[in-house]
TrEMBL record:
It is an enzyme of class 1 (oxidoreductase). InterPro entries: Gfo/Idh/MocA-like_OxRdtase_N, Gfo/Idh/MocA_domain, GFO_IDH_MocA-like_dom, NAD(P)-bd_dom_sf. Its EC number is 1.1.1.179. It comes from Lentithecium fluviatile CBS 122367. This is D-xylose 1-dehydrogenase (NADP(+), D-xylono-1,5-lactone-forming). It catalyses: D-xylose + NADP(+) = D-xylono-1,5-lactone + NADPH + H(+).
Length: 400
C-alpha cells in the first residue's frame, strides 16, 4: 500500500471551535481506521494578535515549526498551506472564505456556511472559477452514524421516508448567559440567533434524510412555512424557530414528504441533559429511525420496525483512547479521556477530496449547502429577520 499523503492545514481564527477542531485534526487517523491520509497544522492566524495565534498553537499541540500570524491576510499568503479551516462567527464566513479563495487556497468553512444564499452562491462560483475545493463544515454529516442512517434509508429498510421530525435546541437562559447581548449567539452584528447556529443541524437531519438520499436528478427544493420568535433583548436574532417543509417527490419514489425542523436557544430537546428521547425521528411505512441528542453529536440510534422489532446501536467516537492523557471537548464540556470530539471525520473527507482531486464534499455538495441557505433565507423572510447590510452583502471586500 502506498504511504499516506499528508495534508497541510492553516487555521483561520483561534476561538472555541478552532481549538476543538484542531485538537481532533492532530489525532493519529489510524485510531479511526483511516490509513490513506494524515493531517498536520502548518499555521494559524488570529485577527487580534500574533501572540494569540502562538498560544493557540501551543494549546492544541501543533508541531513546533507551525507559524503564527497576527492577521488573516498574512495566513492566506503562506505557500505551505494546502487548505484553510475557517472558524470565525458566521457573519464573517463570506469575507474570510473569499479572502482564502482569492489567494488560491482550498477551504473548509464552519457552519452556517454564510449569512444568506447569495453569499454561498458567490463563494461556490469563485471556487469553481479558481478550481479550488470548498466545503461547508457540517461535521455531523461525516459521522459513521450519519453514513449508517443514510444507508438504512437508501436500502429501503423503512420504506420511502414520509416524515421527519428534527430538533436541535439548547436550554440556556440567554439573559443570564449572554447578559450584554454581545455574544455571537444573540448578537445581530454576528448573525446571531438559533436558526443559523443550531437550526442548521435540524435542517441537516431533514436534508440528509429527505434530500441527499434521493437520486441526484430527483432532488427538489422544499416548500417552506415558518414561525420565528425573536429574542427580546437584542431583537434581530431569533430565539425559537419552527419550520414546516414539504419536499416534492414523484409518486414512484414515494410521493411528497414532510418535515418539521425546530430550534431554540431557550428550551431543550430533552431537559436536564437527558438523552433518552429521540430528537430526530425519520419515519417511513415500514418503520422509524430514531437518533438521540445532541443532534450535532449523536452517539445512539434506534430502528423500530413496523413489526415491533427494535435495533439499538451505540456510536462512540474513536480517539487516542483511555490512558492517553488526551482530552477534547467544546465549551465547558469535556469528553472522556482519549475520546475524540468527532470533527476529524469532516477533515478526513476534505483531505480525501484534495488527494482525489475533487472540488466538493461527497456528503454535502455546494448545491445542497446553497439550497439549505435558501431555506434559511425564506424562514427569515417569513419571520421578518434581517441582519445588518454589511454582513448580508456579497460585496467583497467589505470591512466588518
Ligand atoms: N461544528 C461545531 O460543532 C461548532 C461548534 C461551535 C461553533 N461552530 C461555528 O464556528 C464558528 C465560530 O464559533 P466559536 O464558538 O468558535 O466562536 P468564538 O469562540 O467566539 O470564536 C470565534 C473566533 O473568531 C475570530 N473573530 C474574528 N472576528 C471576530 C469578531 N468580530 N467577533 C468575534 N470573533 C471574531 C476570533 O478569533 P481571532 O481573534 O483569533 O481571530 C474568535 O476567537 C461559528 O460560525 C459557529 O457556528 C461550530
Amino acid at each position: 500500500m502506498s504511504s499516506p499523503k499528508t495534508i497541510r492545514w492553516g487555521i483561520l481564527a483561534t476561538g472555541g471551535i478552532a481549538v476543538t477542531f484542531t485538537k481532533d485534526l492532530l489525532v493519529d487517523p489510524t485510531t479511526r481506521g483511516v490509513k490513506h491520509i494524515k493531517h498536520t497544522v502548518v499555521a494559524a492566524a488570529s485577527s487580534s494578535s500574533k501572540s494569540r495565534a502562538e498560544s493557540f498553537l501551543k494549546d492544541v499541540g501543533a508541531p513546533s515549526e507551525a507559524k503564527a500570524y497576527g492577521s488573516y491576510e498574512e495566513l492566506v499568503k503562506d505557500p505551505n498551506i494546502d487548505i484553510i479551516y475557517i472558524a470565525t462567527p458566521h457573519s464573517h464566513h463570506y469575507q474570510n472564505a473569499m479572502l482564502c479563495l482569492e489567494a488560491g487556497k482550498n477551504v473548509l468553512c464552519e457552519k452556517a456556511f454564510t449569512v444568506n444564499a447569495a453569499q454561498a452562491r458567490a463563494l461556490a462560483d469563485r471556487a469553481k472559477e479558481k478550481g479550488l475545493f470548498l466545503m461547508e463544515a457540517v461535521w455531523t454529516r461525516y459521522f459513521p452514524l450519519s453514513v449508517y442512517v443514510r444507508e438504512q434509508i437508501t436500502s429501503g429498510r423503512i420504506g420511502p421516508v414520509a416524515r421527519v421530525f428534527a430538533d436541535n435546541s439548547m436550554a440556556t437562559n440567554p439573559e443570564e448567559a449572554w447578559k450584554d447581548g454581545k455574544h455571537r449567539m444573540v448578537n445581530p452584528e454576528l448573525a446571531g440567533g438559533a436558526l443559523l447556529d443550531l437550526g442548521i443541524y435540524s435542517l441537516t437531519w431533514v436534508f440528509q434524510t429527505l434530500y441527499h438520499t434521493q437520486p441526484e436528478s430527483a432532488r427538489k427544493p422544499p416548500k417552506v412555512l415558518a414561525a420565528l420568535k425573536n429574542y427580546g433583548a437584542t431583537q434581530d436574532a431569533d430565539e425559537t424557530t419552527t419550520v414546516v417543509l414539504s419536499f416534492p417527490r414523484s409518486e414512484e419514489l414515494g410521493g411528497d414528504a414532510h418535515a418539521i425542523a425546530t430550534t431554540s436557544i431557550r428550551i431543550a430537546t430533552t431537559p436536564g441533559g437527558n438523552t433518552d428521547a429521540p430528537g430526530i425521528r425519520i419515519q417511513g411505512p415500514k418503520g422509524e429511525i430514531q437518533v438521540f441528542p445532541p443532534a450535532f453529536r449523536p452517539t445512539k440510534t434506534k430502528i423500530i420496525g413496523k413489526d415491533g422489532s427494535v435495533e439499538e446501536k451505540e456510536w462512540p467516537q474513536p480517539g487516542p483512547g483511555e490512558g492517553s492523557g488526551w482530552y477534547n471537548g467544546f465549551g465547558g464540556g469535556k469528553n472522556a479521556e482519549g475520546e475524540g470530539h468527532g470533527m476529524f471525520w469532516e477533515a478526513d473527507e476534505a483531505a480525501s477530496a484534495l488527494v482525489e482531486g475533487r472540488k466538493e464534499g461527497k456528503y454535502e455538495g455546494l448545491e445542497e449547502s446553497i439550497v439549505i441557505m435558501e431555506v434559511m433565507d425564506e424562514v427569515r423572510r417569513q419571520g421578518g429577520l434581517t441582519y445588518p447590510e454589511k454582513i448580508e452583502t456579497t460585496k467583497y471586500p467589505t470591512q466588518l
